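Researcher: Structure for this, please.
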Amino acid sequence: MKVKIDISCTPEEARSFFGLPDVRALNETLTEEMTKRMQDNIAELSPDALMGQWMSLGGKMSEQFMGLMSGMGKGETTK
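Model: Predicted structure, token format:
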């Protein structure tokens, strides 16, 4: 025996029916904060800024990066 029940309701109605909290305000706050932080830090993602950070650590960082890339090319996993 098969029983099929179709329920048409909005997400708000379903959340209320199951007694779940309304987290829209929290979600909006977190989304706004993440957007603000991303916009504040977007300049650090430019290629010039990244290379400057890597080179400030010396040649060891570039060696590690090249080792990572060659390992990925060979299909090796990191430990």
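Researcher: Any notable elements?
Model: The longest helix spans residues 24-41. The chain has one domain: 11-72.
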